[in-house]
Amino acid sequence: MTTYTEQFSAAAKANAEAQIALFNQLASKTFEGVEKLVDLNLKAAKSSLEETQAAAQKLFSAKDPQEFFTLTSSHAQPTLEKSVAYGRHLSGIFSSTQAELTKAAEAQIAEVNRKVVALIDEAAKNAPAGSEQAISILKSTIGNLSAGYEQFTKNAKQAAEVLEANVTNAVDQISQAGAKVTRATKK
Question: What is each CA distance from 69 to 60, 73, 81, in whole angstroms?
Answer without folding.
Answer: 12, 6, 19
